[in-house]
Amino acid sequence: MSLKIKHLNGDTTFLLTFSPAEQRLPSNRYGQPPGTFSVLIDPWLSGPSTMWHPKFLLSKHIVPSCISTLSQLPEPNVVLVSQDKSDHCHEPTLRQLDPTSSLTNLLAVPAAAKKIRGMKYFPPDRVHALPAYSSKEHDSIIRFYIPPLTPGGAPGEATVTYIPAKMDVSGLHNAVGITYRPPTAAPFPTRYSPPSKSPHYPNFSIPNPHQHRAAVPPTPPDSPPQRPRTLSCSTEPSTISNASSSSIPLSSTSSATTAPSISHQLSHSSHGHYHTPSSSSTTSSHHQPRPAKTLSLLYSPHGLSYSPHLIPYATHHLVPHAALPLTALIHGFDRVENPWYMGGNVNAGIPGGIEIAKNLMARHWIGAHDEDKDNSGLSVKKLRMKKFGLQEVWECVRRECGIRGSCEVRALECGEEMCVRS
Fold it and tell me: For the chain, how are helix, strand and coil distributed in percent, rounded to 5?
């Protein structure tokens, strides 16, 4: 399976494409191979971005985006908006999306979701406010059901999780975690019972590509009884249904406790691969299939402290779902500060990114939100910035991460794409 990351502008607009292992199967009418899950992040292509008033802050791209309109992209399964500020939630760019699309769902932080609904451009049932993550609330993780590649195969699952900072005056610091376990053409060796429907979140039924646009996806392998927020998702258009959308667990439930570093909970095998310790002495390969490797990505353009904010997500979601080491971290390199009375830290930069990359053993770190923009306004006069070159970042990673410092550091140019395979 693979993850493609394409940088669409010089700032923090990305297109993520998660794909299963290559299969000789026909693409759907959207040109996407079966099992693909795509996410468009914080689209801002052209035009100015303002905060409150142009006299306070006005930003413009210096380098043009690599596309002129979103219609040049395949329709994504998800449009993710991580901030309500216009450099993340840019109304003219969002209006380039097809409001009648039955494929795309907009997931946004609560303030951005309110702003997007206020545009009155998208149907209300296509705009969803992301709940804040809680390790005690299964419904705080949005889950996407991905139909099997072939009849009789195992379905996949993608998750989207919003982790906001606590007591953040600026309202800028958060992270969004995305995991992807691909569907397969072969079934799992054991079966699970499907989870019950969550009454707190709308369920979407996605037509199975092997069933002439059936209204409800086929019953997947069974899973432990729990009530996650579930959005069924595939590369086919969706219709709203009252039927339960099912997903299956990525691994058996783990009772791992919070620890300063998740890497301490992983043992290193003789073959050089990290793996999670057994969660129960009663679990064996004869009764439970070994969990499939899960791709994982953390997007935090302004930064978020690993402790205490990210530890619960890493402990209770990434570890039991076999999603570590982290496949990719999208996080800024440059550190930006405002005076305390204007909110203080704007971008955490290298110090915050190093902490996350080290503890989650990130395989790749991609820079974000470091664009040299044309900025003007009162807020710019008080701004202090410390810029870091790619070589400086790499040296910091090597120094801080020690023997685990096998993290590739990339600063993707506008229009550049990288592919991570697992």
Answer: 15, 25, 60
Number of H helices, E strands in the chain: 6, 25
Tokens 């006069």 sit on residue: 381
Cis status of the peptide bond prior to 220, with omega within 30 of 0: no
What is the spatial distance between Cα 210 and Cα 218, in angstroms, rounded to a whole number?
A: 10
Contact present, 35 and 292 (Cβ < 8 Å): no
With a CB cutoff of 8 Å and minimum separation 6, the contacts of 53 are none
Instruction: Give the pTM.
Output: 0.77
DSSP conformational letter for 371:
-
- Identify the CA nearest to 178 among candidates 354, 371, 5: 5
Tell which residue, 146, 112, 101, has the closest CA to residue 44. Answer: 112
pLDDT tens profile 263-298 = 444 433 333 333 333 333 333 444 444 546 899 999
Q: Tens digit of pLDDT for each residue in 47-96?
A: 766 666 666 667 776 788 999 999 999 999 999 999 988 888 999 999 99
- 293-338 confidence digits (pLDDT tens): 899 999 999 889 999 999 999 999 999 999 999 999 999 998 887 7
Is the separation of the CB atoms in 82 and 112 below 8 Å? yes
Residue with tokens 């195969």: 153
Strands 37-41 and 78-81: parallel
Q: Which of 116, 144, 155, 416 is nearest to 292 (CA)?
A: 155
DSSP state of 309: I
- DSSP letters spanning 311-327: HHHIIIIITTTT--S-S
